[in-house]
Structures are given as C-alpha cells and as structure tokens.
Amino acid sequence: MRSTGNARKRVRTAAAAAAVLSLALGAAGCGDDDSGGGGNGKGGGQEETVKLPKLDGQSIQVAGTWTGPEQKSFKVVLDEFSKRTGAEVKFVPTGDNVAGFVGTKQAGGAPPDVVFAPQVGVLQEFVEKGWAKPVNSAVQKELKQNFVQGWQDLGAVDGKQYGVYYKAANKSLVWYNTNAFEQAGVQEPKTWDDFIKTAQTISDSGVAPVSVGGADGWTLTDWFENIYLSQAGPEKYDQLAKHEIKWTDPSVKDALTTLGELFGEDSLMLGGKNTALKTPFPDSITKAFTPPDAPKAAMVFEGDFVASFIGDTKAEVGKDAKLFPFPAVGNESPVVSGGDAAVILKDNKASQAFLTFLASPDAAKIWAERGGFASPNKNLKISTYPNDVQKTIAEALIQAGNDFRFDMSDQAPAAFGGTKGAGEWKALQDFLKDPKDVAGAQKQLETDAAKAYK
C-alpha cells in the first residue's frame, strides 16, 4: 500500500470547503480587490521576496504536461527565474503519461532536472524508484512559510519532503455560456437532478447542453470522483482511493449509474457519446465559448484552469463565461482538489533554487496575474488574480485550509490512475461508450486496480 503522507488523515469532510466555495461564488463581483489571501499578506504585491543564487552558465530542463495557454504562462515563470539567476531553463513537454516519459528518460540516462508530477501516485513512484531527490532547507523554509500542512504533506513521503505544489486546482466546477443559459431561460442548478433537468431544457432550446472532452480519459475520472464524493461521502471516498474497498462495491455502482444519466443520453452531450470520445479537453472548452453568442454547447465541466483556455477565445470570463459548483448528488456539493508538484530528478544548485522560487509568492504571482491558475500559496494576495471569478476560486482554496479531498485517480498508482489508454482512464472511456454496462465497468476497474495496487 502506498503512503500519501498525513494529508488524508488531516482532512475531515468536503462540506466545509464546499460551503466556502458556494459563498465565494455567490459573492463574485462584490468582493474587495485588496483582500489578502491569508498568512501575513506579504508577497503578492511585492517583488523578489525570496533570495535566489546567481547561476550564470548553468542550465536545467523542466518537464511538465502543460500545453497551449498554460504552457505559455508557465514559460513566463521560467523566464523570470532565468532573469533573476542567470540560469538557462528549457521546458520539455511530457505528454499525459508523465511516469512513462520519466521512465524512458531515466533508462536513457537523461532525465530532466525537474518534472511536474500531476498525480500523488506518480510522485511516490519516483521516490520508491530512487529517482526523486529530497528538497533542501531553503525550499522547506519557503514551504513552511507559505503553505498549510496539508499541501506540504501531499509532497512528502515517509516524512521527507520531495514535492512543491506550485499549481493547484479546484476540480469541482461547471463553466457555462451565459448567452446559452439566457436563451434557454435557465438558472444555475444546485443539485444533480436539477442539472439533468437544466441540460434537457437547454437541449430543447436548440443548443447541446454539455461538451465532454472524453478523448482525455482524466476528465472522465473527474466526473466520476465528484459524483462519488457527493453521493457516497468522504469516508467511502478515502477507502476507494486507498483501494480498501473494491470497485465492485455497491457505492461505485450507484455513482456510475448516476453518471450514466448524463453519458447515456446523447441529446445531453455535444454530438453524443461518439463525439465526446473523440473530443480533446481543450476543444471541449472552445466549443462552449466560440463564438460567445452562438456556442455549440452550453456547459463544460472542469477545474479553474478552464479560464486559461477561455482566455484564448473571444469570450470574457465573468461576462460570457461564468461557473457554479458541481451539483450536489448527495447532501453537499463536492470539492475535489488537484495539483502539480515540482519534483527534483537531478539534485543540483539550479534545481533546488528553482523549487525555492516555485514555493515563494513571487513565482505564484506571475501566473496568477495571467489567469487560469490557482495557487495553494497562502501568502499570495487574492487581488493578484485578474477577475472576480478567479479571485473567489482562489480565496475558497485558501480558506479551505486542510479541509479538502485530493483527486482520487491522482492518489492511485500511475498504472491505474494516470496512464493514457489504460487503467481507470480507459475503463471510463469504455463506460462512456456503453453507459448501460455498469457491471462490466466495475469489473474492469477492479481488475486494473488490483494489479496496480499490489
């Protein structure tokens, strides 16, 4: 059994975080732009709060999954690090299978200096194989100063710190096209039943209700996890995340059956299940907001990072694009968090300095100003974010403190929860193809999980 540190022992329920998010989204547009994000308030409005060494003549490779607008924003962060230190930094895209990418590079004797692990299970795998290197005291100092214990624990294995969670995500959001909602005469739904009814009304108005990026299997795991957390509750969620209960458990059957209410109705998804299976995640967003006044779909589900992709369209976040919490299937709306942890694979002065930079408010501020980003750094000022929608998302993340549930598939071994065309990603794509076969999906999920969790 893999250890994920103490984070899951410390979180209690998702209810507190859900309440914070709901209140924050309700208050969007009427907040104080000068409000701080917690802690002592330093960092977000100041320059160079962290001292970095001079690294002229040194170079590092940094690898991550980011593409498109996210990669553009991250390269601005890299440019600032280069400017301050003199080091040359090259970004290397990993693709979705980070574990496979690093494994290949390690076998060839040329791993990147730093890699961003989008799954806790991948970070732990790198530690177990001896690839990941512990962070130094300078990194730890920044982490203790700027992050609550829960986010520190997620980057630790057996009490030793390996990862810095630079970018976090609230993965319990539904983004919608305001024009499509107005034309259909619908309001933001609060429950799953209302969500399905709203989708049907939008369909009747002539617009496809939901755009699903099923070509990227990780989006389907997020659909399942939000439904499961809200319906089965946090205790069951933790048990399934650790494979203490099987995927053949009745609670999984219930969640898949609920998800099938959407996936089983082609009229509720843009192009039906066949189109959904061929639609990459970025395209699912574009279809909901291009053009803003005549979209192909009304809603798209995913995290706060959707804002980056909306920014590449003509739609304006807060006007053409708004959002609501994932609808409650049980008593509470779920709050599922995710994040990307920077991990050192080559222990050198430049790599350690880069993680020190990432753990500071300085690095968080750069991407936050550009949008499509949320930071667990409590000393980044909320006023740094570019609009009220993103300010409220970030504020909810900070105010939630340690009360969150981390993405279930990201906690799993990479072979099950983080590999394209395999494990949970593939099983849920097969389920999207045939939503009536709940038992078959459960059987396949359990077979794959049993192999991966050995």
UniProtKB/TrEMBL annotation:
From what organism does this protein derive?
Streptomyces coryli
Q: Determine the domain of life of the protein's source.
A: Bacteria
Checking InterPro entries in the record gives: Bact_solute-bd_prot1, SBP
Which keywords fit this entry according to its UniProt record?
Signal, Transport
Family per UniProt?
A: Belongs to the bacterial solute-binding protein 1 family.
Name of this protein: Extracellular solute-binding protein
List the SUPFAM superfamilies: Periplasmic binding protein-like II (SSF53850)
The residues the entry assigns to the signal sequence are: 1-27
